[in-house]
Structure formats: C-alpha cells, structure tokens
Write a structure and sequence with these properties.
This protein is 36% helix and 17% strand. α4 links the parallel β3 and β4.
C-alpha cells in the first residue's frame, strides 16, 4: 500500500518509466554568501550537490550517467543542483541548460535556486527551456515563520517566495519546495504550517528535510553553545507522520529526510544511516497506518 505520493510514482506516471536525476554543477554560487551580502543561511556549509558533475556538458552527463548505469535507466532529469542556479546566470550556463534540454534521453530539467533570484530575464530564460522540455524549479523556503527565517538568516520574506511560485506557475513550471523540520525553536506544528503555506502558494511538491548541524556553520556554534537541541529519530519520524497526514493527496513528496555530508556532520549522528532512517519511517507509517491526506486540516486551503 502506498502511504504517500512519492516522486518515483509521479515521474513514472508522467514519463512512463522510472527516471533518474543527473546532478550537474554550473559554476554558480549564492547571492546570500557573497561578501557583504548576508553571509549565508546559518545551516549552509557551502551548497548541496556533493556529486554534481562539472565541465563540458556532454562529459558531465556521461559521468553522471555512469553513476547509475547498473540500474539500466532509460530516462533522466538534468538536475542543476549546487548553490543558486539562477544567480548571475552566464551565457555558458544557459547554453549548458539548453544543450541538456535538447538531448533525447533528458525528459526534464530541474533547477535549484532561491525565490529572490528569479528576475524577469531569468524567468524569460526558464520559459524558453519550458518550451523544449518540462522544467522543475526547487525553492528553499525552509520555514514560513518570519521570525525563524530571520533567525536562520534566510535573507528574504515570505512574500518573495509566494510571488516566485505564482510567476513559475504562470509559465507552466512545476515547483518543488524545501521545508526543514526541527529548526531551532520550531515544533512539528510549525513545520506543518510551513508545508501548508507552500501548498497554498501553489507548490506542486515538497522536499521534507531533517535539520542537520554541519561543521563550519553558524548553526554549529549555536549547537555547541547549547542554544538548541536536534531531534531524536523517534521525534523526527513522528513529526514527519504528523505532517504527511495533513498534506493534500495530490502534492508530490520528493523527500522524506536527507543525508548531510558525513565528513562534516556534527548532529544528529543517527541521520548518517539514511537506509536505517527510511526503514524506521516506513515501519512507523505501516504500524500507525499513516496515509497522506488522511487528516482534514488542509481542506480549507
């Protein structure tokens, strides 16, 4: 029995086969980490995408494909993942994205960015990509609590996110929103409010992410100073179930947890065993008959 509407089910239904993401790096950074521009979010250790391939697009795609070749894939999503893909977009990056979109085995593009990096010229370019292949844009909302957003140094207000989602919806782009569960001072109810805010704004999917404390971040300093605690695995699984039951059935759940870079992971230590975490989630969902959308809280959205 399917307990939630997962990405694999969605992609198979849309593209007729299992789809694999090819993580690609485009030479971009993040405006929030630039000198004199905020210093970055407190949890960020330098962007995601540890396995993102760089260099010539054909060679990068070939290397990324080699990582999954034993699974005999037939279709791929070109995933421009690291940092903020639409920040100071160069012609080189635009060409890389366009070239990837034109390849037959690439069924869609996925672009990770910030809501405050979607100006008119960027939107025009994304629209041009959308005319070639379906496009998914991932936005890091993390929380809809404005006070928490300031505390984690997110760098933009909720209205910026809401407008970005509307603009992307208007050009037929599928929006995936990142939500962090366990942010300092937040409860499972706060995380649910953030997820439902994303749904109300028009997000098509969610990536639910456990808070990780990584070495070298501002968050690590607060953690070492005893300013907050991280979730135990039982707390996280219960919070996740609480949220999933209250998310509409049509919203795609692209992630149920996350695995921070083990080389710099400070806490929680249990999160390093991703397979074990997924097994714990599935076992809890089965035991407690957790079903996406089984509660009625979202019906007034």
């Amino acid at each position: 029995m399917k307990r939630y509407y997962g990405a694999n089910d969605y992609f198979r239904a849309r593209f007729g086969t299992k789809v694999y993401k090819l993580a690609l790096e485009g030479g971009y950074t993040c405006p929030h980490r630039d000198e004199n521009n905020g210093g970055g979010c407190v949890f960020c250790a330098g962007g995601s995408g540890d396995f993102a391939e760089s260099g010539d697009i054909n060679e990068a795609l070939a290397r990324a494909k080699a990582r999954v070749k034993t699974k005999n894939p037939q279709a791929y999503i070109a995933y421009f993942q690291s940092y903020t893909a639409t920040y100071k977009m160069s012609e080189r990056l635009k060409n890389r994205m366009t070239d990837a979109a034109k390849r037959d085995e690439i069924v869609a593009l996925s672009v990770a960015t910030r809501p405050d990096c979607l100006g008119g010229d960027v939107m025009d370019f994304i629209k041009s990509l959308r005319e070639i292949k379906p496009v998914f844009v991932e936005l890091g909302l993390q929380t809809a609590n404005e006070e928490t957003a300031k505390r984690i140094n997110r760098g933009y207000e909720n209205d910026v996110y809401a407008q970005a989602v509307r603009s992307l919806n208007d050009i037929g782009v599928n929006v995936i929103t990142h939500i962090i569960i366990g942010l300092p001072g937040e409860s499972k109810e706060d995380a649910l409010s953030s997820a439902l805010f994303a749904v109300k704004c028009g997000s098509d999917g969610l990536k639910l992410q456990l808070l990780h404390v990584l070495r070298g971040t501002a968050l690590e300093k607060d953690y070492a100073g005893g300013k907050f605690t991280v979730m135990e695995i039982d707390e996280y699984v219960e919070a996740l179930a609480y949220i999933i039951e209250r998310i509409p059935e049509n919203i795609v759940i692209h992630r149920l947890t996350g695995d921070g870079n083990k080389k710099i992971l400070v806490a929680p230590a249990w999160s390093a065993d991703k397979k074990g975490v997924i097994n714990a989630i599935n076992a809890y969902f089965e035991k407690n008959n957790v079903m996406q959308g089984s509660k009625t809280i979202y019906k007034n959205l």
